[in-house]
Each structure stands twice: as C-alpha cells, then as structure tokens.
Amino acid sequence: MRVSELSNLRLRDLDFEENQIHVLRKGGKHDVVAVSPHFMQDVKNYLVSV
Prior knowledge:
Blueprint: H1 3-7, E1 14-15, E2 20-24, E3 30-34, H2 37-49
Antiparallel strand pairs: 1-2, 2-3
C-alpha cells in the first residue's frame, strides 16, 4: 500500500469483520488488501482511544 493510498483511507474502507482494507489505487483502480486480525485489532484500539 502506498503512503498516498493509506492517507486517503476512510473509516468505511476498513472491514473489521473480514480483516480487509478497501483501497483506491493509482489510476482509480479499486482493490482489497487482506491484513492480519492482530493489525485490525490494533486499529480498533487506536480508534477507541482517540
């Protein structure tokens, strides 16, 4: 995932149930990135603390 793709993420792009992130790639292509459940839990913990 590129830094620009990461910085443009929205909460609705995060799928906590499927452990996936929906990404808008360079050139407007939509893609789904699978991530570890541990990472998604860390994201959840961060969002609760902010």
